[in-house]
Amino acid sequence: MHKTYLLDSLDELQRHLAQSHEIYQVVPQSDDARADYHWQQVGSGNWPDLVEQKPLQSPKSFFFAEQEPLYVFDGETFEEVLPTPTPFVLFGVKSCDLMAIHYQDIFFEDDPYYQARRKQGLLVGVDCVTPCEQGFCQLVNAGPSVRDDTADLVLHPLDGQRWMLVVLSAAGKQALHGLALEDASPEDLHQRWENISHCEQSFPRYQYILEGIGKLNQHAISDEFWQQLGIQCLGCSGCTTLCPTCSCFATRPIESASSQQTSVTQVRFWDSCLYESFQREASFHNPASEAGQRVKRFWYHKFSDDFVPEFGRYGCVGCGRCEATCPGVIGVHSVMKRIADDA
Ligand code: SF4
Ligand code: SF4
Q1: Which of 40, 136, 257, 302 could connect to 318 by a Cys-Cys bridge, CB 3.0–4.6 Å?
Q2: Which keywords does this chain's UniProt record carry (predicted)?
Q3: By the 8 A CB rule, do 264 and 72 touch?
């Protein structure tokens, strides 16, 4: 049974965590009511409210950097360049994005660059109490409530003003040390599950997603179908950039020269399995030279049962970002609808 507390507001918790951490939160990019939302460092006594909106960019770059140096070679020796972040808090991460971080924790388990950042990050999740646009987390066991092993602390909005705080990990408990907190009551706990249950029942049914996953795992989709989708893929990498579980990367050397010496920095950067060059081998043989093969590969990585033994779940957490960003109309809803209807 997790320890639960009651908060009248979030300020005191934010102020307390800020004594030992940098705090990052989702905020609007401008005062314009139509502005997008993004992750940003906050503080200096002016604590923003938690917003309901899901930001277009997930927090994956906090741990898996978009571009980073791996090592430097000065002509004689190699020197590893490990990141040295100060402790930080991601305050108010949605359940789907927490599940994606949990997924990447497994993928990058032995990656020292990812782990150096991950060890400094405290995750404060927030339960969703209303379904988001395009989201289907409840179909893929990623939300709308924060799953136990994906965060350190969880916030739940009880009644518009008060919050329940749930402690999920030893790091979460440690971070609260010195903060005077009131215990939550059994009624508060009941209210949390009522709110979550109401949210789960409010999602559209999205039956075609379940049918699509079923057909994909029965290998009942023709190659012609994938080829048709391939024609629509512009190879822009919008989906793989925004997808919180995508982890493809490549490396390249960048040379820098001074009057004293020349050195080479090996840099890692996000890549995309939808680029023509991604799987091209040194011999120039390409096992996925056609766009349709690459689109097929992407969707198998998201929904194939083959990956469940390794990750304990599908590679999709139901955030809906691919649908929101794809200019070729081959995001998850569009693809699954077409698979269910006519693949
Ligand atoms: S997909 Fe679910 S957990 Fe993610 S933002 Fe939408 S409702 Fe919340
Ligand atoms: S495949 Fe689409 S819906 Fe699934 S996690 Fe990635 S971006 Fe979100």
Answers
A1: 136
A2: Iron, Iron-sulfur, Metal-binding
A3: yes
Q: Whose CA is nearest to atom 7 of ligand 2?
A: 243
Does a structural domain hold residue 303?
A: yes
CA distances from 157 to 38, 105, 167, 188 (A): 21, 27, 15, 10
For β-strands 4-7 and 182-183, DSSP reports them as antiparallel
What residue's CA is closest to ligand 2, atom 5? 316
Q: Would residue 296 count as lying in a domain?
A: yes
Spatial contact of 232 and 243, defined as CB atoms under 8 Å apart? no
Encode pLDDT of 91-111 as tens digits.
999 999 999 999 999 999 999
Domain of residue 126 covers: 3-65+82-202
Residues 182 and 230 both lie in one domain: no
Which parts of the chain have pLDDT scores under 70? Answer: 343
In 3D space, the residue among 123, 103, 107, 108 whose CA is nearest the CA of residue 168 turns out to be 123
Mutation choice for ligand 1 from 196, 319, 333, CB with most ligand atoms inside 8 A: 319
- The amino acid at 310: E
Determine, yes or no, domain membership for 11.
yes
